[in-house]
C-alpha cells in the first residue's frame, strides 16, 4: 500500500520530481567526477616520483662540477643514502629543430642527457625505464608530443655555430618525473653516449644535476639543504625538492579538480534548498489529503515513509546516474594528466565517488526526514480546517500567500507601488513571502557564483598581471644568464650593453641574484636567494609594503616570511660579506620561482656567491617590431643567451594550465546555466500550482495571458537581480579567499595553509564577468520562465473542478 501511495504521490508531482532529479543528477555528476579525479591525483605525484626513483633534493648547476667533492660531501652526511651527478648538455633554442620547427622562440631549456639505469629514471609510455638509446635516435619528453604534435619517426635536428648538423630520429617519448609538464621550464632529451659526446664537441653548454636521496625526507631535507648551502659546493642554479616536483605534476589537474568539486558543492546546496522548497510546497498543497489519510487511520509514520520512499528513490536514481556519468567524465578530465604521469589510482577511483553518491542519497533522506517533522504536530482537524497553530504558522506556509495574512505583519498596499498592476502584484507577493523570497535569492546567488568564480580564476591565470603577482617583474623582454664561471660577469656586461644600445628599448634593468644566509623561524640557517637591483623600474606586485630602496632594506616573498617567522616592518638577520646585519623588511610579494623562498634587495654582489643574472626591458612607444622581434634580434646578437618576450614566457609556461582551467570554467558555467533553468522551471511550476484556482478564475473572467504572466516574471527577475548582486559580492570576497587558499595548498603545500602565503588578486574581466555572464544568466532564467508560463493556458475552472 505504501508503495502504491508513493507512486501516486510521484505521479501527482511529475514536473517537480523531474526537476529535482535533474538538480541532484547534475550535483552527483560533478561531485563524482571531481572526487574520482582527486582520488586519481591523491598520491599520483608521489607515485610517479617513486616509480622513477626521483631524488629528494636537487641542486641545478650551470658549469663544471668536481664529482669527487660532491661524493665526499655525501659520504659525510649521515642522512644521505645515495647521490648522483648527472651531466646535461644545454642547447640554444635556435640550434634545435623539432620536425623542422625552430625552438628559438621557446622558453623551455632543452637538455641532452644519457639516461641513468639505476635511479632518477626516464620512463617510456609503458613506464619502462629507458636505459639504452640507440645511436642516431632521440627520446623526447611527452610535453613535445602533447603541445607540439611531434610523432615517433620525426626528425630532430641539432646545429652548431661551426656549421655542425646532426639529425636524430624520434624513437619515442619519455616521462620525466622531475621535468614533466609545461610549468617546469627545463626538459631532458635522452640520447646515446656517443651522440652526446659528438654534439658536445661542436655546441652546447654543460650543466649538472646534483641529486641526493635521504632516509627520511620529512626530517632530513631541511638539514641537508642547510648543510649544502653552507658548503662551497656548486650552486649556480636553483635548488628544488620533491614538493616542487609534485607541484609541477599535479598543479593543473589540482586546479581543475578543485573547481569541479566547488561546482558540485554549490549545485548540491541549490538542490537541497530546492528540495526543501518543493517538499514544503507539496506538504502545503497536500494538507487536506494528508488529513484525510490521518482520519481514516493511516499513521503519520506511514505518511512520512511515503515521502521518504518518493524522495529517497529520486535521490538514488539521480545518484546512480551521476555516479555512472562521473566515472565516464573523469577519464576525459584526466586525459592529459594520465598521458604525463601514466596510469595512477586503483579501486579508490571508483570507491571514492561511490561513497560520495551514497552520501548524497543519505543527505537527501535526512533533509526530507527533518522537513517532515511538522507532520508529527499536525492534527487531522487542523489540516481539514486549513489552520495551523500559531507557533508553527511561519514554517508551514513557505510558498502560500496565507503567510502574510497570518503572520501579523501588515502587507504593503498595491496602490502604493509606482508600478503597473502585473509587476506590482509580483513585488507585493515577494514582500509577503519573506523567507521563501530570501531562499530564492540565495539560490540564484549560488548560481551566480558558480558562473563567475571559475571564470574569474581562468581570466586571472590568463592575464598579463598574473606574472607580476608571481614575482616576475613587469617587463616586455626578459633575459637570464646563470653564473657559470669567471666569464659570466663579462657576458652580463655585454647583455647590458646590447640592451642599452637597442633604440627600440625605452629602459632596462639589470638584476644580480646572490645567495645569503638568514635566520629561520626556529633559529636554523636558511640559504636565501636575494635579487638586487632597481626594483622600482620594472616592479612586481607587492602584497604589502613596497620595493627596497637602499642597502638597509629588503623585501621577502610571502613564503620566505613564513619560513623566517617575520613580518613586514620587522628586521631580518642576514649575512652580508661574512658579517651578520639587520635589514628592515619593507615589503612582501608572491613568488613561485625557485621554490618560492626568495627576496629582493639592493645588496653588493662583490665577494658573494652569484647564482644568476637577469635583465628586464620595456619597449619604447612606437618601437619598430614587437617584443618577439626584438627578442629574436638580441638572441642572435648574444650567442648562448636566451632573450624572450615576456608574453611568450607566460603563454608557454602557464598557457596549458590556463587552457585547462578555462575549459573547466566553461563546463561549470554551462552547469550553472542549466541549474538556473531547472530551478526556474521548478519554482515557477510550484508558484502556478499553488495559485491554480485564482488563475483559472481570472482566465474565466477574460484576463489576458500577458497580465497573468507579469507577476510571475516580475518575481523571478527581481529575485534574480538580488541574487546576482549577492553572488557578485560573494565572488569578489569569499571567492578571492578560496582562490588564495587553493594556491597556498598547491604552491606552498598543506603545511602552509591559512598562513597567508598566497595573496594573488583575482583579475576580473568586467565585460565578461560583469556584463556578459549576468546577461546570459538573466536570459536563461527569462527563457525558462516564459517556457513555464505556457502552463497558464491550460488552467481552466472546469478542469480544476473535475480534479
From TrEMBL:
The chain crosses the membrane at residues 255-279, 306-329, 349-370, 439-462, 666-688, 771-789. It holds the Pfam family FtsX. GO terms for cellular component: plasma membrane. It is found in: Cell membrane. PROSITE patterns: PROKAR_LIPOPROTEIN. It is a multi-pass membrane protein. Its main location: membrane. The keyword Endoplasmic reticulum does not apply. Keywords: Cell membrane, Membrane, Transmembrane, Transmembrane helix. InterPro entries: ABC3_permease_C, Membrane_comp_ABC_pdt. Residues 264-368 form the ABC3 transporter permease C-terminal domain. PANTHER family: BLL1001 PROTEIN (PTHR30287:SF2), MEMBRANE COMPONENT OF PREDICTED ABC SUPERFAMILY METABOLITE UPTAKE TRANSPORTER (PTHR30287). This is ABC-type antimicrobial peptide transport system, permease component. The lineage of its organism: Bacteria, Bacillati, Actinomycetota, Actinomycetes, Micrococcales.
Amino acid at each position: 500500500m505504501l508503495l502504491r501511495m508513493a507512486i501516486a504521490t510521484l505521479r501527482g508531482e511529475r514536473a517537480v520530481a523531474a526537476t529535482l532529479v535533474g538538480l541532484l543528477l547534475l550535483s552527483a555528476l560533478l561531485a563524482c567526477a571531481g572526487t574520482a579525479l582527486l582520488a586519481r591525483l591523491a598520491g599520483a605525484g608521489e607515485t610517479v616520483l617513486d616509480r622513477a626513483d626521483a631524488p629528494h633534493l636537487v641542486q641545478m648547476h650551470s658549469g663544471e662540477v668536481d664529482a669527487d667533492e660532491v661524493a665526499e660531501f655525501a659520504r659525510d652526511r649521515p642522512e644521505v643514502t645515495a647521490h648522483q651527478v648527472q651531466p646535461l648538455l644545454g642547447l640554444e633554442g635556435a640550434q634545435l629543430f623539432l620536425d623542422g620547427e625552430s625552438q628559438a622562440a621557446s622558453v623551455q631549456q632543452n637538455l641532452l642527457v644519457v639516461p641513468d639505469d639505476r635511479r632518477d629514471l626516464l620512463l617510456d609510455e609503458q613506464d619502462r625505464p629507458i636505459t639504452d638509446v640507440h645511436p642516431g635516435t632521440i627520446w623526447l619528453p611527452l610535453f613535445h608530443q602533447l603541445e607540439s604534435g611531434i610523432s615517433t619517426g620525426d626528425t630532430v635536428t641539432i646545429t652548431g655555430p661551426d656549421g655542425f648538423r646532426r639529425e636524430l630520429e624520434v624513437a619515442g617519448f619519455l616521462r620525466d618525473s622531475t621535468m614533466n609538464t609545461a610549468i617546469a621550464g627545463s626538459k631532458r632529451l635522452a640520447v646515446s653516449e656517443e651522440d652526446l659526446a659528438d654534439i658536445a664537441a661542436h655546441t652546447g653548454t654543460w650543466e649538472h644535476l646534483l641529486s641526493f636521496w635521504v632516509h627520511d625526507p620529512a626530517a632530513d631535507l631541511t638539514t641537508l639543504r642547510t648543510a649544502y648551502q653552507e658548503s662551497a659546493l656548486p650552486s649556480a642554479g636553483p635548488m628544488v625538492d620533491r614538493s616542487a616536483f609534485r607541484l609541477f605534476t599535479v598543479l593543473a589537474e589540482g586546479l581543475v579538480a578543485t573547481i569541479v568539486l566547488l561546482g558540485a558543492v554549490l549545485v548540491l546546496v541549490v538542490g537541497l534548498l530546492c528540495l526543501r522548497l518543493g517538499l514544503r510546497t507539496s506538504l502545503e498543497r497536500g494538507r487536506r489529503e494528508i488529513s484525510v489519510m490521518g482520519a481514516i487511520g493511516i499513521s503519520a509514520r506511514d505518511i512520512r515513509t511515503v515521502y521518504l520512499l518518493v524522495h529517497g528513490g529520486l535521490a538514488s536514481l539521480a545518484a546512480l546516474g551521476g555516479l555512472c556519468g562521473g566515472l565516464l567524465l573523469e577519464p576525459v578530465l584526466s586525459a592529459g594528466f594520465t598521458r604525463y604521469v601514466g596510469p595512477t589510482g586503483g579501486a579508490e577511483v571508483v570507491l571514492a565517488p561511490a561513497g560520495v553518491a551514497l552520501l548524497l542519497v543519505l543527505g537527501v533522506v535526512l533533509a526530507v526526514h527533518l522537513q517532515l517533522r511538522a507532520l508529527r504536530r499536525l492534527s487531522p482537524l487542523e489540516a481539514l480546517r486549513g489552520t495551523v497553530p500559531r507557533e508553527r504558522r511561519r514554517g508551514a506556509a513557505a510558498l502560500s500567500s496565507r503567510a502574510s495574512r497570518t503572520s501579523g505583519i501588515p502587507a504593503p498596499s498595491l496602490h502604493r507601488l509606482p508600478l503597473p498592476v502585473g509587476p506590482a502584484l509580483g513585488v507585493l507577493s515577494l514582500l509577503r513571502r519573506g523567507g521563501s523570497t530570501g531562499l530564492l535569492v540565495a539560490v540564484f546567488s549560488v548560481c551566480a557564483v558558480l558562473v563567475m568564480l571559475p571564470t574569474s580564476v581562468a581570466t586571472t591565470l590568463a592575464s598579463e598581471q598574473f606574472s607580476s603577482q608571481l614575482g616576475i617583474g613587469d617587463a616586455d623582454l626578459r633575459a637570464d644568464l646563470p653564473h657559470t664561471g669567471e666569464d659570466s660577469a663579462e657576458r652580463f656586461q655585454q647583455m647590458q650593453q646590447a640592451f642599452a644600445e637597442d633604440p627600440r628599448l625605452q629602459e632596462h634593468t639589470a638584476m644580480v641574484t646572490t645567495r645569503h644566509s638568514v635566520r629561520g623561524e626556529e633559529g636554523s640557517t636558511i640559504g636565501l636567494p636575494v635579487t638586487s637591483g632597481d626594483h622600482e623600474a620594472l616592479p612586481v606586485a607587492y602584497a604589502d609594503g613596497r620595493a627596497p630602496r637602499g642597502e638597509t632594506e629588503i623585501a621577502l616573498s610571502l613564503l620566505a616570511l613564513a619560513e623566517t617567522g617575520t613580518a613586514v616592518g620587522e628586521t631580518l638577520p642576514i649575512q652580508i660579506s661574512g658579517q651578520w646585519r639587520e635589514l628592515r623588511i619593507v615589503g612582501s610579494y608572491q613568488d613561485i620561482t625557485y621554490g618560492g623562498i626568495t627576496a629582493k634587495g639592493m645588496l653588493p654582489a662583490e665577494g658573494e656567491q652569484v647564482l644568476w643574472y637577469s635583465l628586464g626591458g620595456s619597449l619604447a612607444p612606437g618601437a619598430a617590431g614587437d617584443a618577439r622581434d626584438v627578442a629574436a634580434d638580441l638572441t642572435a646578437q648574444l650567442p648562448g643567451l636566451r632573450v624572450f618576450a615576456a608574453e611568450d614566457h607566460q603563454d608557454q609556461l602557464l598557457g596549458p594550465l590556463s587552457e585547462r582551467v578555462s575549459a573547466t570554467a566553461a563546463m561549470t558555467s554551462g552547469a550553472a546555466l542549466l541549474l538556473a533553468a531547472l530551478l526556474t522551471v521548478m519554482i515557477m511550476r510550484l508558484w502556478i500550482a499553488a495559485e491554480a484556482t485564482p488563475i483559472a478564475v481570472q482566465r474565466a473572467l477574460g484576463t489576458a495571458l500577458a497580465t497573468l504572466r507579469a507577476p510571475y516574471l516580475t518575481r523571478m527577475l527581481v529575485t534574480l537581480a538580488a541574487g546576482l548582486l549577492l553572488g557578485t559580492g560573494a565572488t569578489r570576497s569569499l571567492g578571492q579567499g578560496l582562490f588564495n587558499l587553493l594556491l597556498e595548498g598547491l604552491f606552498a603545500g598543506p603545511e602552509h595553509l591559512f598562513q597567508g602565503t598566497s595573496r594573488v588578486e583575482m583579475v576580473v574581466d568586467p565585460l565578461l564577468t560583469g556584463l556578459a555572464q549576468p546577461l546570459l544568466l538573466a536570459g536563461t532564467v527569462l527563457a525558462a520562465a516564459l517556457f513555464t508560463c505556457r502552463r497558464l493556458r491550460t488552467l481552466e475552472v472546469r478542469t480544476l473542478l473535475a480534479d
